[in-house]
Structures are given as C-alpha cells and as structure tokens.
Recover the amino acids of this structure.
C-alpha cells in the first residue's frame, strides 16, 4: 500500500481556497495539495501520496539515521554492541517512538 | 467467507485458517486495450488469432521486420500503425513516430531503409492545421532518415470514432550481404548493449497526460536508428540480434529475444542508463523504467569478442553517445530475463501483461 | 539530502546486513504488513540477502488485493451506468469481480478513467457538470486523507456531481486478526511507515504488549527495510516486545494532526470485509452521515448482493505464512497474474504476484551465480 515519495516544495499558492504547491521530485514537478501541512515552507521536503503532502521530512532525523547506519560496522569491532552505542552517539533513544 | 458480513454469529475476528480466495476471471472474447500494449496480451493475440489465420515461415519469425528475398535482392519489409494521445508531445509528434518507428523496425534487421508508404485515418472535424503539422513532421523525419514516402492513402471516419489522426506506415529497405540479424541468433556469451538512456519517450508522453512538468531534459527520444546500425555494421557484420525497445520497453525487448533464441538474459540493473528525472517520475507513478517505451534506442546482442568495438562505435555516433553494456546472454533459465539488483539480489523481469498503469501501492 | 538515493546505498546495506547476520541465532518469522514493502523487498532482492533464519511473511497490506468482491462488483455496476465517469487508481482496473473487471467495463463502452489523485477526479467533475463522476476510494490510512479532503472540497465548492465509492481499511485491526489466529506464526511486525506518517504510533503499544510482539515502524527504501528487520530481530533475540520507530524522518508520534481531524470529520469506523479474509470488526471507514449524499453507494442505490467466492486457491495460508506461494499447486500454472485465481496474484504487490514476477526461478536460489562477469 501507499506508494509515497519524497519531494521538495518549490512554490506555494492558494487555488480555490486550497493550499497547493509545486513539488519537485528530482526533476519532475507536480501539483500537490498542502492542506495537511499548513506549516510547510518552500525548500522543505515532504512525503507525497496520490497528490497530497502527508508529512514533512525531517532532515535532522534522516541524517542521524544514516549516521547510525555508517557507524554500525565500526562500533561492532570496537565495543561489540553497536546498536546501543551508536544510538547513544547519534542522539537517539531506543524505541524513541514511545 | 465473504458472506460472514451478513451472519451476526460470525461477527468475531475471523479465523485466518479459513481465509479463502476469489474466483477466477474467465476471459471474455472482446478486445481490451492491453491487446495493443505490446506485452503478453499482444503476443497471445498474434499467436492465437493472427498466426493461425495467415501464419507462414517468415511471419512466424516475429521479427521487427520481415527479411525477404525478391528478385535476388534481400529486402526488409515492415509495417506499423501509430495511435498516440496526445498527438504532439515534448520532443516530437505522431508524424515523427510514424517515420522513425518503421525506419527503426527495418534497421533492426540490419537493412538500409529506402522507401515508406504513409496512410492517414482522420477523424471528421479535426483541424486541417493539425493534419498539416503532422504531415510536415512526416516529411522532415523522412528526410532526416534518408527515406522517401512514395505512396499513401487517406480515409476519414465519423466524428467520435478516432483520436484525430491515426497514421500507418510501411517500409522497405535493403539488407547488406553477410548480415543476418534475428532474435533467434542470440547466443550464451553475447553481451547485451543499449544505445542510450531509457524511458524518455514514455515519460514525455505520460508527462502531458499526468500534468507533469520537467525542469530540463525530458523529451521523447524519437530518432531514426538506421545510420547508427550502419555504423555498427561497419565494425562487424556479425551482430546476433537487434531490437528497438518501443512499447513494453527494454524488459519486453529482452524478453522477446530470450524467448526467440531459447537463451537466458542477465541484466545488471546498476548498468542500465536511466535518466534521473525518468527514474523519479517512475518512482511516484509506480512504474518500472524497464517497461517504459523508447522510440530512438536499440538493444544489441553482440558476440563477446566484438562487444568493446561495437560499444565504442555506438558511443562515437550522436544517436549512441549514452550507450552502455547492460548484461549478457546465458545458457541458464532459457526464455527468462533476470536482473541483478543494486544490492546484490536477483529478480525475474517478466513480460508485462498489458500496459503499465500508474499504481498507488 | 534528497531522502531517496541516500537510503539505497549498497555499502550501508552491507553494514546493516552484516549486523543482522551477527545478531540472529535462531529462526524468526517477521511480517511486513504493507504491500509496498513486499514490493520493495522482492524488487531489490532483500529477502535473498537476509540470513536463512529470518523469514519474511508478506502480510495483507495491499488495498487492491483486499478490497472485497462485493465492492468490486458495486464498482463495476456503477462504472457501467450511462452518464457515469468512473475514476480509479490504475491498480484497480485489473482486479477481477464476479464476472469481469473494470477493463472489461471500459471495453464495453463504460467511461473508466485512470487518475493519479482523487483531486483529478474532482477536476473532471467540475469540467463535466453533465456527468456523474465517481471516484473509487480504496486504500489504507495513507490514502484515506486524500479521499477525505477531496470529498470535503467537493462539498465546500458545491460540486454535487461528484461522489466517492468508499472501501477504506485500517491496519491495526488486521494485525489483531492475524495475532488472534490459532495458527499464527508471526513473531514480529514491520509496521507500515506511511500509514504511521498519518496516524502516528499511538495505536501500536497496546497491540505490542497484548500479543507480546515487537512492532517496528519501517520505511520503504532498501536501507529502511533492513533497519526495520535489524531492530525487530534485536528485540526478538533479547526477548523484548516494544514499539520502535525506524522511520523517524517521516513519522511523528502523533502522526499528522490536521489529517486526523479531517479523517474524523469525513469518515467513521465500520466493519469491513477483506477479500480472501472475511469481515474484520472495526477495520474500515465509511462516510459520516454529514457526507452521505457524496456516497456513491447511497447515490446509485447499488445494493449489497453478497457474493460467495469458491475456495479455489490457498491465499489464506499464504497470507498467514503457512505456505509460500510456490507451495500452491495452482501457482504459476492455472494461477498467474494474467489469469489470477486469488487476490494475492492480482496486484504486483500481492504476495503471489510478487513471487511470480520476481521469484519463480527459485529454487535454485541464485540463478546468476555461475554467470560470467560482464565484458
């Protein structure tokens, strides 16, 4: 379910009382409804599904996740418990959803 | 189980051990759009209806063009009808397609295309200015491809019975001596080459239908390929198979060659040139670029000893500047195309059923 | 940061895989609920790269597959009506109803159109006030906000020739149904990231605690899926059963509050039949009374003739992970994507179709192992 892809908001306008955006998906630009992300601004990235922006993408979280991946191998060799150590260093807490 | 909705006693969580399944959909004897999609349905229509009606040794080769010997000359002969909506799209129009498509079908047997016929089916009410634009595009494309349009026809259908303009072209060309290019000749060990980035035509047309805009670089790749083929034949006449991956895309072309030759094809996904904008447009429409149409690309199955020279010849030509080696022909899994994924896994690249549809899942 | 290529990197994938291989000491069965994840797993060959001990069971999270036959038949009936423009996501056109699919309705003269977004259908309604424009509103929590907003806009703009044929489904009741099955083999769930982008994660801690299963909110790119598997397996090996968010860039704990408010205004929870599964209590959404006049079922009076489907295939067992698709005698013989016997063979993200498309060469597992390197 739910083919949703990241895109960059490149322009915002009001159309028939609806907040719409031009969103750039790596070269392909499409009209997207922004009603569900009232605070999003030009330059932000959002995850888009069937023409609707559903959630702003958080760059800090994305970088922390990638950083965590990159450290897994190295930390395993050094400390033997990569997840806890890497998570701590990346500033994430395990089960941070809760 | 579906009737539990009406059974108050069954209103508890269902036991998945009793989960059942929908009934089969029996084919109904009517034409559906997928029959023209170039995939499995098209192949079935040819195999089950047309071939029994008028099949013969030449037709049964199912090549892009038929190779015939006539009065001592080896001729390539091909025909194709063009229905495209919209008629005009970034990078070309139905007129360019009608010339280049048939020219390329001839070129895929190594022929030098010479002459075309061009027949128009026009819908009542279509502006003559539109027909004029298409006709001029035919003339310009024919000149660029080095062919002449030597005969034609026009019919008009009632308003509402056509999409403005349909075009059918047929073409003939001469096959040089010593050239025998057929899908059946692909052999294990052949290297698979593609002449440039894929997916541009299909995405250019779709962009108009889906309201996509592109900053740069998305235009149909429609182009004549005979000159490119001639450049490759100058390196070696020993090409095994050529195909222009139009409807159904690269995957379908590879699948057809694998089936015809009884070999397997292994595709290196990371080596397939896909423009970033095509990849991203496919990403949010849920399409696979391997199945998106091209109108100015060719796939070549080349003996390994000639592969480097052929690749160099492709890259030296303007139509082949983006050429790449994308895979190889193997003895395993005959008739099947397998892709090696970027992560190191594998998957089967199947023949599409009909046309690819945008998906949400 | 483009949020795409970065999460497909083969070198990082290798690090994650190595960690999974180091962590696993015994067999585990995980279910990815979402069909989009199934598609990604098979498409990238991820399942082949995991340790043999980690089994991925492909769950029922494919809205195309689980839309009930009765609703498909209603769609076919409405689409065939004169004066109706029936709009749908492309995936639905090939799904078999009792005796035909939307393609057949189209070939018989019905005005069936594929749209990318429900807003496109609303635009068609605005341009053709003489037509009745119906949108087939299927999908999980990810898609529901789009359809909710569209019907809300239709009312606000007074576009009265638009209506919605609603067959929305919800993930948590399906997870519960799976866990309550006596034959259940699932030991942990990869929860669908984009569902959680809308809904947040509040619905899951109770499920994780009650059924003692780890639930890891997981994204869709290859690295996301590997990270979901990695975290799940770590919990299992440690005997834990918590909810984790492995997709924090797109999922906030509380979801999208604006979307949740719109869902609450437009939809209400209802029982819903799932194709091949049966009715799951509270597992769907329908339009609230305030939006009843935009309900296509109401507008066109299509009555709920319940259709019984013969038990012709083993998709129920496939969905539970009791068998793999290729263990079914019909798989790849009488049942193919071209002639589907079961819903799981219809959509490209259905478990059977995914196996048919990408995996039918197995066993043997890796057909390209002996192939020479490219020249």
């Amino acid at each position: 379910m739910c083919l949703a892809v990241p895109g960059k908001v490149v322009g915002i306008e009001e159309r028939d009382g609806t907040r719409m955006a031009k969103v750039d998906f790596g070269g392909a630009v499409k009209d997207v409804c922004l009603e569900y992300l009232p605070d999003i601004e030009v330059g932000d990235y959002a995850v888009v599904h069937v023409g609707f922006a559903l959630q702003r993408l958080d760059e800090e979280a994305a970088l922390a996740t990638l950083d965590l991946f990159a450290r897994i191998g190295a930390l395993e060799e050094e400390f033997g418990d990569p997840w806890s150590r890497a998570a701590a260093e990346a500033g994430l807490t395990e089960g941070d959803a809760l | 189980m579906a009737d539990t909705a009406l059974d108050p006693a069954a209103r508890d969580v269902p036991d998945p051990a009793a989960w059942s399944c929908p009934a089969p959909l029996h084919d109904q004897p009517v034409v559906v759009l997928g029959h023209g999609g170039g995939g499995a349905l098209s192949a079935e229509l040819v195999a089950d209806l047309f071939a029994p009606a008028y099949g013969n040794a030449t037709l049964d080769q199912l090549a892009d063009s038929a190779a015939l010997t006539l009065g001592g000359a080896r001729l390539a002969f091909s025909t194709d009808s063009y229905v495209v909506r919209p008629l005009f799209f970034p990078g070309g129009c139905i007129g360019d397609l009608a010339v280049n498509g048939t020219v390329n079908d001839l070129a895929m047997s190594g022929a030098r295309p010479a002459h075309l016929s061009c027949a128009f089916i026009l819908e009542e009410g279509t502006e003559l200015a539109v027909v004029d634009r298409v006709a001029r595009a035919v003339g310009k494309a024919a000149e660029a491809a080095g062919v002449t349009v030597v005969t034609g026809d026009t019919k008009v259908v009632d308003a509402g019975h056509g999409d403005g303009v349909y075009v059918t072209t047929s073409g003939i060309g001469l096959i040089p001596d010593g050239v025998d290019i057929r899908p059946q000749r692909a052999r294990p060990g052949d290297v698979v080459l593609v002449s440039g980035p894929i997916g541009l035509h299909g995405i250019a047309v779709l962009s108009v239908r889906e309201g996509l805009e592109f900053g740069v670089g998305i235009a149909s790749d429609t182009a004549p390929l005979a000159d490119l083929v001639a450049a490759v034949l100058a390196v070696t006449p020993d090409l095994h198979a050529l195909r222009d991956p139009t409807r159904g895309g690269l995957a379908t072309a590879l699948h057809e060659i694998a089936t015809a030759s009884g070999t397997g094809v292994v595709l290196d996904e990371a080596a397939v040139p896909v423009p970033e904008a095509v990849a991203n447009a496919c990403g949010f429409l849920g399409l696979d670029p391997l199945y998106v149409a091209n109108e100015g690309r060719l796939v070549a199955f080349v003996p390994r000893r000639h592969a480097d020279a052929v690749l160099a010849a492709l890259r030296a030509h303007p139509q082949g500047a983006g050429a790449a080696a994308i895979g190889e022909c193997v003895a395993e899994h005959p008739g099947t195309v397998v892709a090696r994924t970027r992560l190191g896994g594998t998957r089967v690249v199947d023949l599409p059923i009909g046309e690819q549809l945008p998906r949400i899942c | 940061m483009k949020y795409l290529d970065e999460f497909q990197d083969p070198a990082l994938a290798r690090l994650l895989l190595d960690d999974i291989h180091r962590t696993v000491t015994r067999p585990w069965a995980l279910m990815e609920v979402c069909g989009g994840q199934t598609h990604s797993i098979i498409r990238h060959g991820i399942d082949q790269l995991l340790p043999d001990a980690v089994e991925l069971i492909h769950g029922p999270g494919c809205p195309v597959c689980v839309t009930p036959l009765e609703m498909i038949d209603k769609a076919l009936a409405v689409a065939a009506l004169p004066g109706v423009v029936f709009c749908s996501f492309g995936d639905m056109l090939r799904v078999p109803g009792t005796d035909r699919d939307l393609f057949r309705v189209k070939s018989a003269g019905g005005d069936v159109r594929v749209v990318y977004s429900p807003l496109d259908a609303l635009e068609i309604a605005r341009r053709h006030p003489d037509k009745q424009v119906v949108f087939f509103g299927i999908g999980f929590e990810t898609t529901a906000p789009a359809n909710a907003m569209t019907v809300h806009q239709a009312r606000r703009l007074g576009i009265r020739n638009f209506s919605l044929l609603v067959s929305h489904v919800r993930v948590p009741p399906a997870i519960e149904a799976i866990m309550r099955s006596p034959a259940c083999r699932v030991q942990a769930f990869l929860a669908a990231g984009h569902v959680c982008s809308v809904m947040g994660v509040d619905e899951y801690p109770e499920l994780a605690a009650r059924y003692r299963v780890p639930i890891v909110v997981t994204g869709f790119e290859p690295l996301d899926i590997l990270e979901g598997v990695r975290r799940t397996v770590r919990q299992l090996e440690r005997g834990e059963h918590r909810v984790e968010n492995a997709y924090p860039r797109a999922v906030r704990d509380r979801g999208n509050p604006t979307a949740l408010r719109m869902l609450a205004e437009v939809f209400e929870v209802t029982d819903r039949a799932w194709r091949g599964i049966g009715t799951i209590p509270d597992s769907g959404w329908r339009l609230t009374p305030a939006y009843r006049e935009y309900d296509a079922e109401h507008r066109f009076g299509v009555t709920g003739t319940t259709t019984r489907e013969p038990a012709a295939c083993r998709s129920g067992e496939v969905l539970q992970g009791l068998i793999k698709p290729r263990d079914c005698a019909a798989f790849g013989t009488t049942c193919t994507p071209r002639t589907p016997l079961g819903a799981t063979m219809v959509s490209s993200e259905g478990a059977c179709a995914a196996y048919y498309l990408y995996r039918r060469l197995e066993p043997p597992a890796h057909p390209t192992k002996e192939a020479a390197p490219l020249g």
Observations:
- The first strand of chain A starts at residue 5 and ends at 15.
- The interface with chain B takes residues 1-3, 5, 7, 22, 24-31, 48-50 of chain A (CB under 8 Å).
- The radius of gyration of chain A is 18 Å.
- Confidence is low (pLDDT under 50) at residues 91-98 of chain A.
